[in-house]
Amino acid sequence: MAGLGWQQWSTGDTVSAANFQGFLQDQIIQVYASTTARDTANPSPSHGQWAFVTADDTLYYRSSSAWVATSLAADITGITTAANSALAGGATSGDVTLTVDVNNATVATATAADYVLIADTDDSNATRKALISDITALAGDITEVTAGTAISGGGSSGAVTVNVDVNGASVVTGTSTDYILIEDVTDNTTKKCLASDIASDPIPLILALS
């Protein structure tokens, strides 16, 4: 029989032999000088019983058909963050905190086959590892911006800037059906319009009189 748990007793209650055994005997921590003395005194222990043996200062609990020794103290005496471990923190007592410390790591030249740690937003920001090549692929596949006709600037890395370069365009004799670029003051956007539209638009003439 295993221990019977908890019983709220009242004055005058009759305690049967079974209740005394299940509520009291089977649920106390028995103390013995040795495991031999324990097994002799209690040859048929119940599942869940406890016994302390003074010979080896060990607390045992009964699991099915065997006594199992427990440890009365934790065996971790300290947590230390080693050099180049990419961790910071640690202690020898109390509540211990560990944090990632990038500066506590050696420097390496990254390759496409190396891994980096990421917070996976598709999995509640769980910490995962990802190939550097996967991350760089997410940045886009443009490898270079080359300035073409009437454009200046460009580059193959970093933040690239391009500008309109009128001097980079070839010279042509304009006609009324050609287009030219303008800044549309109605919405400040760049648009094209026929040269004939500009030529037909009246331009005010200002005379300086002396």
Account of the 3D structure:
The chain has helices at residues 17-24, 35-41, 132-138, 195-200, and strands at residues 29-32, 50-53, 58-63, 66-70, 79-80, 87-91, 98-100, 115-120, 126-131, 145-146, 151-155, 162-164, 179-184, 189-194. It has 210 residues and is an alpha+beta fold. It has a 4-stranded mixed beta sheet.
List the helices and strands and how they pair.
Elements: H1 17-24, E1 29-32, H2 35-41, E2 50-53, E3 58-63, E4 66-70, E5 79-80, E6 87-91, E7 98-100, E8 115-120, E9 126-131, H3 132-138, E10 145-146, E11 151-155, E12 162-164, E13 179-184, E14 189-194, H4 195-200
Parallel strand pairs: 1-2
Antiparallel strand pairs: 2-3, 3-4, 5-6, 6-7, 8-9, 10-11, 11-12, 13-14
List keywords for this structure.
210 residues; alpha+beta; YefM-like fold; 3 domains; three-stranded antiparallel β-sheet; rod-shaped
Number of domains: 3
Poorly predicted sequence stretches spanning 5 or more consecutive residues = none
SSE pattern, N- to C-terminal:
HEHEEEEEEEEHEEEEEH
Trace the largest sheet across and list its strands.
1-2-3-4
Approximately what portion of the residues adopt beta-strand conformation? 25-35%
